[in-house]
Amino acid sequence: MLGSVFLETLKQTWKPMVYWGVGLAAMALLIVLMVPLFDMQSVATLLESFPPVILAMVGIGDDLAIFTTNEGFVAVGFFGKSALIFAVYPVVMGMRISANEEDDGTSDVLLSLPISRAQVMVEKFAAYALTIVGVVVLIYLGLYVGVALGGVDLVVARLAEVTFYLIPLMIFIMAATMLIAVLARRRTVALGLVTAFVIISYMLQTIGAAAEGTVAETVGAISFLTYYNTGEILTQGFIWPQIAGFAGLSALMLLAALYRYEQREIAV
Amino acid sequence: MASGSIIEMRGLSKTYGSGAKQTVALRDLDLSVERGEIFGYLGPNGAGKTTTIRLLLDLIRPSQGSATIFGLDIRADSVEIHRRIGFFPAELSLWEGRTGDQIIHYVASVRGDARGIVKHADELAERLDLDTTKKVRDLSSGNKRKLGLVIAMMHSPELLILDEPTGGLDPLVQQTFHSMMDEYRDKGKTVFLSSHVLSEVQAICDRVGILRDGELKAVESVEKITNVEFTWVDVSFRDALPAGLQQQLESMPSITDVSTNGARVRMRMIGDFDPLLRAISSGYVKSLHVEEPTLEEIFLAYYSGDKEAS
Questions:
Q1: Are A105 and B92 in contact (CB < 8 Å)?
Q2: Which residues, 6 or more positions from A70, have their beta carbon under 8 angstroms from its beta carbon?
Q3: How many domains in chain B?
Q4: What is the pLDDT of residues B207-245, one digit of tens each?
Q5: Whole-prediction pTM value?
Q6: Of A23, A46, B118, B229, whose CA is between 20 and 30 Å from B28?
């Protein structure tokens, strides 16, 4: 029946979603509570003494004025620098779409039922995407709780775009993981490849940001993390072409995974 | 397709790898399973039984040949076929964090008509003495297999495909399972049951296919297979072997392969026990063990019999 796998996936995942969401929200909360500890003017003075290349590497770039606001500090210092942590949840969920069930053998039972492989995959993808939304909402709530608890002078609404930009980013990572897992077939191999993909992307983005006007900057452009520039999002709001890019690539990867999963054999 | 055939395999082959590393798992399989029969698919481990079943379920794809179930192509019509079959995998894995009830509801909801299916699942669970309120991770391997049987049978499918279903079940539950299979036959439903246990196949099947090294060697009625059956008999005497017993046994037409070890004698026997019991009555028999032949032995006996007949 349509939606059965979707609902079951949600039932099996709501607890991990809450755990991850609360964990990441706690990190957001702590960062907010740390804001009053910094005298942003002194931080600005200190940062001005740093070589631009170092500032670029840590994601601050030229616009020190953004970073030295409370919102900018949270946007760049927390959201910008925690990309690897945010990547873990979608990787875990992407592995669950096919690799985990194939490896532990439950896919034999599921795929012996009157449901196509494509339907299984699409319903799981949709369910896990929904849990990503849940995790991101919890992170956003963490910011609110931090402000309320610490009485911090921070307009959380200004961070809404930076926060919710995580949704297309994390769905993209999940889609990439799903595709790699479908191609690799084995959980361990897939996990290794996905980890390499995320870490290499992170390195390319970091190096690319530091080496403006060089080949490294061009290479950095192929890292998906380059398109989660929190300082830019804070000042410009949603950058729709980039969001469309994430959505389009996610859809393409989903289609490629569906095609391959339909064609290939289920691992024993 | 022959009228009444539920499963039809033609030239079905499966190879893994390529070149020097190529392994043939199944070679040119031609087999029909008729409506209303319980078909035993017999073979030692690694013979290709599970490969055949995974091909039928469209989990893996044939290298050559084709197969139909209910006249539908196993690849193009897999969803419709799956609607009408129940499957029990040899390596049963279920969602460890879910209870039996939750899994039953999940599978029933995928199948549709959840209410009717769940009601029947409850009846099956009761018959198999299965507690469905426990999480899978807390179930013994035998109880997990009971749950697997419930999932396979709860929608009363037209065809059951069971891969080594009774391994790990206690004898009482095996008996219940055998009764369930008899009921299936009585309702005109079909069962394709793979096993490497001859006695199980003998107890419940109408016909048997013998698979060896990926090749179907014979398809016979259970009676015919049983005709070539023999047993190994092991007799231990309290004292020494009675004088002249070995020669006496070797001269008996129903006994072959006599070997002795101290006060023990082992032999291969066909037919009734009475001549043997008379022969050994001259000594004090401490114990007598009867062993079922291995599948390989049955297979060899069957073929040597065929050759002799020809």
A1: yes
A2: A35, A40, A152, A153, A154
A3: 2
A4: 999 898 899 988 988 877 766 668 899 999 998 899 999
A5: 0.85
A6: B229
